[in-house]
Amino acid sequence: MTERPAPTDEDVLGGLEPNQVRVRFPPSPTGLLTVGNIRSALFNWAFAHHYGGKLVLRIEDTDKSRNTPEALQYTLDSLTWLGLNWDEGPEAGGDFGPYLQSERMDTYADVVAKLLAAGRAYHCYCSQEELDQRREAARTAGQHSGYDGHCRALTPEQVQAYIEEGRRPVVRLRMPDRPITFDDLVRGEITFLPENLGDYVLVRANGYPLYPLVNPVDDALMEITHVLRGEDLLPSTPRQIALYEALAEIGIGSGRTPRFGHLPFVMGEGNKKLSKRDPGAGLGEYMERGFLPEGLLNYLALLGWSIADDRDVFTMDEMIKAFDIRKVNANAARFDPKKCEAINASHMRLLEPADWAGRAVPFLAKAGVLPAEPSDAQLALLTAAVPHVQERMNTFSEAPEMLGFLFVSDQDFSIDPDSAAKVLTGDAGAVLEATGKALAGVGEWKTEPIEAALRASLIEGLGLKPKNAFGPVRVAISGRRISPPLFESLELLGRESSLRRIEQARASLPAD
Fold first, then answer.
1. 415-433: pLDDT as tens digits
2. Where does 188-329 have alpha helices with state H?
3. What CA–CA distance (Å, rounded) separates 425 from 485?
4. 64, 272, 273, 276: which is the annotated catalytic residue?
5. What does the pLDDT look like over 81-102, one tens digit per residue?
6. 387 Cβ contact list (under 8 Å, min separation 6)
7. Domain Aminoacyl-tRNA synthetase class I anticodon-binding spans what residues (predicted)?
8. Which residues, at least 6 apart from 135, have a Cβ–Cβ distance to it below 8 Å?
9. Annotated binding site for ATP
10. Is 446 labeled as catalytic in the residue annotation?
């Protein structure tokens, strides 16, 4: 890798018009999308939209043992939930389908036949045992241990002998005997030497096409112009470039080799690449916890890119406008769950109350706090509560605990035992008795008169500190030590329920 001047837009586009940009996101539908997958999809999506190009969704579903229709639908639903809309692919259609690799097997077979006929690929009859022996001998001699080209120039007699032995060949690409250099949009100029690039397998002996074949073939046929993918795939790039060149020779695709950009690793704990098994790696966890799609995407965008040195929170429209693949950092990015949650909380605070309430409903319904279709009165109460909790919540899964007390009937209302044990002790009985009397005399049931009455009664009248004065009241009406602001909560709950719950809490205390 060498230093190079920062590329211009013209360099990035490689002679294309901006609206000719075509990128792809090729997930394998195994029922799990990781934050690393999503970050790659996001950068491709932002790149395509920045230039007015197209994002192609192509499904790598050739592994029948791991891929199911349900997993495919989960993948599509997840990308839809995230708002990463694709221009071509399943459900969207397009001129370059089918977009499921399992439906393209005849295409791959046809391409391989043409590569063989043109001499750009060949049959290799080496057994695994023979390959292992020759590799070990090469290592012992201090030589490169990749494939040694043993079957590159077999005579017809040698081929016939292998066939008579019952050997089933793999298909290998004939790599060029020269260095392969390309200008990576993230990492600069990279060169791979031929001694490190052995002829690699395109098709297994059972006829099964492999990833290094199907992806470049699909890219060529779908006229993909830019490939933005993970750093872990960098070693395969020179082999794929050689295949693009071979495909161009036999008339497959447009003849253009895509521009590559290899995105940095997303690191987890212990300075290791984030694994799909690590906590916080899977998308489902964020959906379950009530993250906003835009909050999660905002944070993932920061894993290798930034909109400005002094700014972390932005919308996806702002990202599209500002996104520049040249400014992606090649260094690994560390995933920080706490910062991810903080970015999400910032987006929650940007929502209008009605929007916030609508997004909270599914989580309140799942917890049994509200019906799936709340009444107008319930929605109105929820919306009125929003300004008092937006600053206190990081995800929507916190909504039932924070707001549930507003919607449960007084008959079904209960106080958290731990909160009762820690707060409803000592002078709590006297506090609640004074609270009931003070609130009974409040005229207009609004926050300001409620606060004035309680401060006069509990702080001035009983001489208590605010924590000791208001803690028992909070637990009595909300059931917990943590709730929306106390005086606003009393107003939202209403006079009758507030007085009833205070009396119920006082009555539950043990007699002196």
1. 999 999 999 999 999 999 9
2. 211-221, 237-249, 283-289, 293-301, 316-322
3. 22
4. 276
5. 999 999 999 999 999 999 999 9
6. 353
7. 360-505
8. 145, 146
9. 276
10. no
